[in-house]
Amino acid sequence: MSPSPHRPPAEVAAPGRAAVVLATLAVLVSAADTYVVVLALPDILTGVGVGLDQLQEATPIIGGFLLGYTATLPLLGRLADLRGRVPVLVGCLLLFALGSLLTATAVSLGPAVLGRGLQGIGAGGLVPATLALVADRWPPDRRAVPLGVVGAVQEAGAVLGPLAGAAVLAVSHWRAIFWLNLALGVGLAVALRVSGPRRPGRDLAGVACAVVAAAALALQLAEPEPLVTDVTLGLGWVPVVAAQPWTTPLVLVTVVAVAGLVARSLTAAHPVLPLRGLPALAREVDVLGAVLVVVALGSLVWAFAAADPATQVVAHGPVLLPLAAVAAGAFVLHERRTAEPLLPLTELRPVGAWGALVVNLLVGVALVAALVDVPLFARATTETDQLGAALVLVELLVAVPVGAVAGGWLCRRTAPRWVAAVGMGLAALAFVAMTRWDATSLDSWTSTAALLAAGLGFGLAVAPVNAVLLAVTPSRVHGSASALVVVARTVGMLVGLSLLTAIALRRFTEVVRGIPSPLVTCPDTPADCAPYDRAVDAAVLTQLHTVFAGAAVAAALAALAAVLLLRTAAVDVRR
């Protein structure tokens, strides 16, 4: 199997600084959106007709985003290699904006899930394309710092997302969050498109059709009350054919404008949409491989994302796990035989390449324990609400971007494997300290020190993993390779959440079985129940300590894997 002869367009091979800055801002927006539902989810469910007593219905909203984010990453990474980084960034931003529009206007669960899925696809494609863009601009011995900055911005989204969501909810409706995402997505897409090289004869008619279609669709879905209730303007929402609700003037304008856009894209010299190149692109992109990897990753993601940790490790395991295994096996066999593989399996043979994936997988396992169980610990041991628990987690998250930038800087002076190993070793020690937390630990400065140390440790590992991966793979597959490292971390988080939670719940159940029944311990007065309550609280702490212990093991294994596997002469140069 020979490597693909296709290379990114010339204008992407040496991107301007403006393109890198805009792409990094796009990563920040999408990363913040990943966490924005933390506080807004109850309001979103109510807004789409799901009662708060049916919180299990939230699974498709969260799982849909994760499914879109993870399953299409290899395909989007390959597209970034074949057609350039900037076009993929623009396309992903527009998909993100469309998903935001559908979510903002959703009045039932279906459109909300579809919208979040499209947002996930768009958000997922931004990260590998941006990492590849950075690798295109800087040589291996200078790219660790900018890679650290991109990683820091991505991690900052975990801090800014919940805070931004809380700020919007304080002054407006939950839908305003997604209207803001829509504006940011479109604005960044336009800015990235404009920041690229100027092309003569730009298709202004096609641009006009795109603007009209987008505006008409947005108005149709949003249904702003002042316009809908107006005697004259409200006719835009009245079906032309009464029996067909879709025949409103706004929908018809959208259809005509889209048809015009397609026609212009097939005939113009410099079309808005590159439709004439789609047949060739379909041959280059390995459609069968894309379908197989989407089925494999999609089945795996949904199996873990839809699981109820209280009763199962995976959901629909007898169906989804074999399906994922069969699809993955068929994908590997197909990739070895096809002339144009979707993923550069042969380019991942260096130890540093697959080692980066292993390290990031273990990082994901450890990280999810902090993201989920630190707030749970705060809720269990203090009287804080959900926002207060999230603010405790911020003490950890705020250190991650700092560590990411510091890790990039250190990689220019120290072998990346040692930077990553020290970072994950620090995180492991922090989790060990968390296993000793008691009901009053969050009142002490020592808990803050442990949280900051964990966040700093996770951050230190960001740049070394990406730097090594991009150094040992050729530029023609940087998009695909970057997509794989993101997939590895996401899968690690999903698997870690299910496994650690299942193990911890089993430990909790064992401890609870040893507690005498409250009918025996407090038969007369509530005061007699104090021993029972203390025993239950101790069981909850045991459960959380178990998760922290598992995270410590995963972080320690990540540190060991970094030392053994993150090796490459291209970046192990001390400067």
From TrEMBL:
Pfam families, alphabetized: MFS_1 (PF07690)
Segments forming a coiled coil: none
Domain Major facilitator superfamily (MFS) profile: from-to ranges: 19-570
Any one GO CC term of the record: plasma membrane
Membrane topology annotation: Multi-pass membrane protein
Protein name (database record): Major Facilitator Superfamily protein
Entry keywords, A to Z: Membrane, Transmembrane, Transmembrane helix, Transport
Keyword Transmembrane: yes
Gene Ontology MF, one: transmembrane transporter activity
Domain of life assignment: Bacteria
Location of the protein in the cell: Cell inner membrane
Annotated organism of origin: Klenkia brasiliensis
Regions crossing the membrane: 58-76, 88-111, 117-135, 147-170, 176-192, 204-222, 242-266, 287-307, 313-333, 354-378, 390-411, 418-437, 449-472, 484-505, 547-566
Signal peptide start and end residues: none
Gene3D superfamilies found in the cross-reference section: MFS general substrate transporter like domains, Multidrug resistance protein D
Upper classification of the organism: Bacteria, Bacillati, Actinomycetota, Actinomycetes, Geodermatophilales
PROSITE patterns per the UniProt record, alphabetical: MFS
